[in-house]
Amino acid sequence: MKDEFKNILAINFGGIGDEIFFLPTLISLKKEFPNSKITLALEPRSKSVKDLTDIIEDLFLIDVKGKNKYFELLKLIFLARKGNFNKKFDMVISSGGNKFISLLLYMTGIKERYGYKSGALSEKLLTKAIPLNKNQYACDMYHDLVSVITEQKTYLPEINVVPQEKISNSVLIHPGVSKLSVQKGMIKTVSAEVWAEVIDILQDSGKKVILAGGPDDKECIEKIRATLKNKNFEDYYGKTKSLKDLAILISKAEKFLCSDSAPLHVAVALKTRTYVIFGPTDDKKLIPQCEFVTPIKANDNCPIKPCLWEHRQTTCEKLDCLKITAKDIANVVI
For the whole model, what pTM was predicted? Predict the structure, then answer.
C-alpha cells in the first residue's frame, strides 16, 4: 500500500555526478511510498548531494575507495542490519554491476533486495535481479532498478533550488573537472588556454561572461585569468562555497558552458540552457536527449570514440577528441 511506512536503504557509490543521476530513482520511490524514509549509502566525497534534495532523510558515509575498503563494507552491513529511524529497513536497492553486490545485500538481512543481474548468485540472493543496460542515459539505467517496484517514472534529476531571475545575456562558464579524474589520467576537457580564448570571443560578441569553479579548478582558473585579453568578465571563482551555491548561480545564467563534470548534471536538473564539451566520454549516456542540452564535440573521426570506460580506463596521449577550437565552441554558444 502506498500509504504504508517504508524504511528504504539505497546504495550508490561514485562521484557527485553519479548521485545526481541516482536522484530520479529515489524520487520515484518517494512518489510510490510517500511516507517512506530513504537512507542513502554513498562515498564521503559525494555527501553534498543531500544539500540539493529533501528526498534523502539520512546518509551512511562509506569510504569504499579508501585504504580500509573491507572494514567500510562491514560497517555498511552493520548499519544496514541495525536499521534507521528506530526501525529495521524494509527494502534495499543497490546500483553497481559487481557480482558480489548481491552477496552484500543478502548479508544485510533486509527482506526485499533489488540490484542488477550479475549471474546466478544475484538471481538466487536478490528479490529481483534487474538486467543492467549501460547503453542508455545514466538516469534511465539507474531507474531500471525500481521498474519492478513502481510504475512511477522520473526522467530527470530534480533539486531544491528556487527559480532565480536570469542575468540578461549571460554565459556562465565552469571549465573544470575533478582533480581525481586528472590524477587518474582521465582528461575530459580542453586546455585553460582554449577556455580563455572562448571567454574572449564571447565577450567580444557582447556576452556577459561569468567564470566559476571549485577548489579542484584553482590551477585551471589561474591559467585562464593569466591568458585572458579581456579582463571584464565577472569572476565568481571562490564565491560559491557549496554545490547549492553553484546551483543557484547556474539557475541565474541564461546559458551554461561546462565540461563533462558534476556541474553539468546540476544544470540538467535546473533545465538551464547548457552546452557541454565532450571528448572521450559518451554524451548519449551522460546527457538527456532534449532541446536544452547541446554536446560540443570534435570532428576527429576516431574509430573507437567514445573510448573512456568503453575501451580504456584512461585517455590516450593524442586526445584528438578534444581538439576543438575556441571559435567552434563559442560559435555554438552564441
Answer: 0.94
